Structure formats: structure tokens, C-alpha cells
Amino acid sequence: MANATAKAAPEEGPVLQVRDLRRAYEEGGRRRVVLDGIDARVERGEIVALLGRSGSGKSTLLNLLAGIDRPDGGEIRVEGQRLDRMGERERTLFRRRRVGFIYQFFNLVPTLTVAENIALPLELNDVPARERRSRVEDLLGQVGLPGRGGAFPDALSGGEQQRVAIARAIAHEPALLLADEPTGNLDADTGARIIALLRDLARRQGRTLVMVTHSREVAAVADRVWTLCEGRLDHGDVHP
Ligand SMILES: Nc1ncnc2c1ncn2[C@@H]1O[C@H](COP(=O)(O)OP(=O)(O)OP(=O)(O)O)[C@@H](O)[C@H]1O
């Protein structure tokens, strides 16, 4: 009875909750603390920019939030589910269903067409082929690449490849969208258009987005700015 009521429905509560998160690396027999007690909370539909100097631990934090890596201590809840308590396989399945990841260098599979790249998370989640095809068409339209499904990634510009990567990241309608320097490999104009697209998609679809960036302009579209410094998170609760 208590259990039945204790578990909130996915639509309720914050999408992401982090408590006292810790991560250190061993290097040459020495322990280097990178995250030294991170607390954070992100509500549904919020856009968060994660800033911090090089080496401050931004990618480390993002990888923990994605369930790619495991913390040494602390709690990570995505839609109320404890990621830090899951084993490797459970985390992989969870990530496949509930997390979308956008990389600086796009990470498209070069031997697959654009449509096949976008369909990957749908395939992994057992979406039937027919539905996959119509979803991919729809996603291509959403990212401004209608009719380009048959192309291979190397025939596309950097900005176009990132659009494909965004379509792939949102294809399975993840609860949490994570982006690691999504404009880091693009010129300023193309980067600005990619950020506008991400912002519009996040706003229209109510997606929750945490993105690492070095750029103040990128951070300006966020609802909140977090700055990582010496293993701790400085929460900006106001607009940048
Ligand atoms: N697998 C690892 N083993 C050992 N040390 C690591 C590992 N991954 C990261 N580090 C170290 O942890 C620190 C934080 O790295 P991280 O990549 O998270 O920083 P970052 O803020 O994303 O940096 P950048 O902005 O340059 O990408 C760095 O000092 C890095 O050398």
C-alpha cells in the first residue's frame, strides 16, 4: 500500500534530482576529486546551461546524469528512478528509453543513412518498422531536413549532421535530453541556428534539456545557468 502510493507517476515531480553527487578519478596512484557533492534539481521543460572552465568536470557530470558512468557516492534520480542504484544493464536499458544525448562531434554512424541513424533508438526500443518510417519522416521535418533521409552523413554539412543527431536524440521522446557542447564544432552562425532549433524543440515539446557549453550566447537561451567550480555547482536561479 505504502509502495503503491510512494512511487510518483513519471509526469509528476522533477525530471532530474541530484543529491551529494561525488566522483573522483585515480591517476598515477593519486585520487583526484572532480565532483565534490553536487546538488541539483531540474523541472520538466526546463533548459539548463552547464558552464565551467576546462577540466572542471562538466562532461563527468553529464555522463553521470546519462547513466553512462557511475558515481562514487550520492543520488541521481531521473523521473524519480534511482540511476545510481542500477546495475550496468539496467542503466543501459534506462538510458535507451528515457535519455537522449547530443555530442559535440555528432557521433552519427557513417555507414548508415540519415534515416537509419535517426531510426536507431526506435529500433532499440522495438518500435515496428512501419511506425519507424513515419516517425523518421516527421523528425526530419522537425529538424529542417525534409527529404534528406537517404543521404549518408558525410554528404551533409556539420550543421546538418547536428540536426540529424538532434532528431536521433529526441526520436524516442526521452524524459531528459543532454547535450555536451552541441555547438562546439560549428561556426558561430550555424551554432546559433542549432541552439535556436534545440530551444524551439525543447519549448514546443516540453523537453528537459541540460547542455554543457563554453558559450555565454548559448547559455543565454537557458532558464538557468549552473557553473561548476572546484567540484561544486553554483546554481543560477535567474536568467543569465
Ligand atoms: N576517465 C578518466 N580518468 C582519469 N581522469 C579523468 C577521466 N575523465 C576525466 N578525467 C579528469 O577529470 C577532470 C574533469 O574532466 P571533464 O572532462 O569532466 O571536464 P570538462 O569540464 O568537461 O572539461 P572540457 O571543458 O575541457 O571538456 C579533468 O581533470 C580530467 O582530466
Rg over alpha carbons:
18 Å
Uncertain residue segments:
1-8
Q: Tell me the β content.
A: 25-35%
Secondary-structure class: alpha/beta
**Helical residue percent band:** 25-40%
Number of separate structural domains: 1
| Name of the level-1 CATH class | Alpha Beta
Kindly summarize this structure in a few lines.
Helix content is 35%, strand content 26%. The chain is α/β, with parallel strands linked by helices and 240 residues long.
What do these coordinates show?
This protein is α/β, with parallel strands linked by helices. The protein has one domain (about 45-70, about 85-235): 3-Layer(aba) Sandwich (Rossmann fold), CATH 3.40.50. The protein is about 35% helix and about 25% strand. The protein has 8 helices and 10 strands. The protein has helices at about 1-5, 60-65, 90-100, 115-125, 130-140, 160-170, 190-205, 215-220; strands at about 15-25, 30-40, 45-50, 75-80, 80, 100, 175-180, 210, 225-230, 230-235. The strands form 2 sheets. A 6-stranded mixed β-sheet has the order 6-7-8-3-9-10. The protein has a 4-stranded antiparallel β-sheet with strand order 2-1-4-5, with helices on one face. A hairpin with a 2-residue loop joins β9 (about 225-230) and β10 (about 230-235). The radius of gyration is 18 Å and the shape is globular. The N and C termini lie far apart (about 45 Å). Adenosine-5'-triphosphate binds near residues 34, 52, 56 and 57. The site of adenosine-5'-triphosphate has 11 residues, from β1 and α2. InterPro entries: AAA+_ATPase (IPR003593), ABC_transporter-like_ATP-bd (IPR003439), ABC_transporter-like_CS (IPR017871), ABC_transpr_LolD-like (IPR015854), MacB-like_ATP-bd (IPR017911), P-loop_NTPase (IPR027417). One of its GO terms (molecular function) is transmembrane transporter activity. Belongs to the ABC transporter superfamily. Macrolide exporter (TC 3.A.1.122) family.
